[in-house]
Every structure is written in C-alpha cells, then in structure tokens.
Design goal:
Blueprint: E1 2-5, H1 9-21, E2 26-29, H2 41-55, E3 59-69, H3 80-86, H4 88-95, E4 103-113, E5 120-130, E6 146-148, H5 160-166, H6 168-184
Parallel strand pairs: 1-2, 1-3
Antiparallel strand pairs: 3-4, 4-5, 5-6
The structure holds inosine 5'-triphosphate.
Length: 185
C-alpha cells in the first residue's frame, strides 16, 4: 500500500487522480510533513521522506513544492509555505505591483521510499506568469495567482483534472509512475 504523506488534502486529491490513470491506488496519510529549512526543495523533500520512514513502517511518497518568481530572484521558492501563511497571494501581488516581468515557475520534488530502500526523487516543473489579481476559487495555495503557460486561466479557475494537465505535481508524478511501474514488474 502506497501512502502520500501530506497535510494538504488538495495535493492528495490531485495526486490520486493522476495515479488513477496509471492504475495505481494511493492512500492519504494526513500528518504534518517534517520540514527542515534549506534553500532547495529536493533537500526538504528527501529529508521529510527519511524522517517519516523512521516513524512509519510504510511505503511512502512525500512532496515538497514551491513557487519561484523570476523578478524576485526565485523567492519564495523553498520558503513558499511560510510566505503563504504570512503574506499570502495578496502579499505576492503587492511585491509585484508595477512589475511587468511576471514570469514564475512552480516546482515539485516527489520523494519515494520504503523502510528497506533508500529514498529516490522525481521532479516536475511548470512555467507560467503571476496574474495581476487573484482569480478563481478552486485548488489551494498560490493557485489563484498562477497562470500556467498554454492557458489564460489561473490554476484556481481550473478543475482538478484541468490543473493536472499542466501542473508541476502531475509532471513529477508522471516521472515517478513510469519508474514505479517498471520496478513492480
Ligand atoms: P505538505 O507539506 O503537508 O505536503 P504544504 O501545502 O505545506 O503541504 P508544500 O510545503 O509542498 O506543501 O507547499 C509549499 C507552499 O506552496 C504551500 O503554501 C502550498 O500551498 C504552495 N503550493 C504547493 N503546491 C501548490 C500548487 O499546486 N498550487 C498552489 N500552491 C501550491
């Protein structure tokens, strides 16, 4: 049984839908992800997987994601969850007020591990722009202000399956499932 460890139900719902398409069932382990402070999300994700495996005798996936804004030299990046909790989408829009260069990227690093095996990671990225105002009610986090390349809508204006056509999470999950399906055969 494969568990996605996340305190974020939105993440789980997106991942479940992607994995369903590959015929892989995932369960939700709704605990807080142990998060070290580091300036790269791979380190944060792999550390989280190792810490969880010390306490749970399970096959697990954990993901660390972040929004990297070019005009802010990649901020908030690995500090995305802190920035979301403090200044949120409105705070980001304020920081980018009068900024014409609005390019940004979402990145995700998904780490897989079992108590027997070492942790292995898969990454996914999507480029896009930061909208001029917050739009839409679906999704979570920075979804209302992120417009992925190839769309005019923010992630928060999309259904889960539409967001999954673009997202960093889907891309990381795709890398993982291709590897996982081979490993299982
Ligand atoms: P877990 O750590 O428990 O998995 P989390 O929501 O804190 O849940 P992250 O640390 O990976 O997840 O996310 C960092 C921040 O980036 C957090 O505030 C998220 O809301 C935001 N974020 C991550 N993926 C996102 C996405 O697909 N759309 C919008 N915001 C996202």
């Amino acid at each position: 049984m494969l568990f996605l460890v996340t305190s974020n139900i939105g993440k789980f719902k997106e991942a479940r839908l992607v994995m369903e398409r590959y015929g892989i069932v995932i369960q939700h382990l709704a605990i807080e992800k142990p998060e070290i402070q580091a300036d790269n999300i791979r380190e944060i994700s792999e550390n989280a997987a190792k810490e969880i495996l010390k306490q749970h005798n399970k096959e697990i996936l954990v993901e660390d994601a972040g929004l990297f804004i070019e005009a802010l030299n990649g901020f908030p990046g690995p500090y995305s969850s802190y920035v979301m909790r403090t200044i949120g989408c409105q705070g980001i829009l304020k920081l980018l007020k009068n900024e014409t260069k609005r390019n940004a990227k979402f990145k995700a690093v998904l780490s897989y591990g079992t108590p027997e095996e070492s942790v292995i990671s898969f990454k996914g990225e999507i480029k896009g722009i930061i909208a001029h105002s917050s739009r839409g009610n679906s999704g979570f986090g920075f979804d209302p202000i992120f417009i992925p390349e190839g769309s005019n809508n923010t992630f928060a204006e999309m259904s889960i399956s539409k967001k999954n056509e673009f997202s960093h999470r889907m891309r990381a999950l795709k890398q993982f499932t291709e590897w996982y399906v081979k490993k299982m055969h």
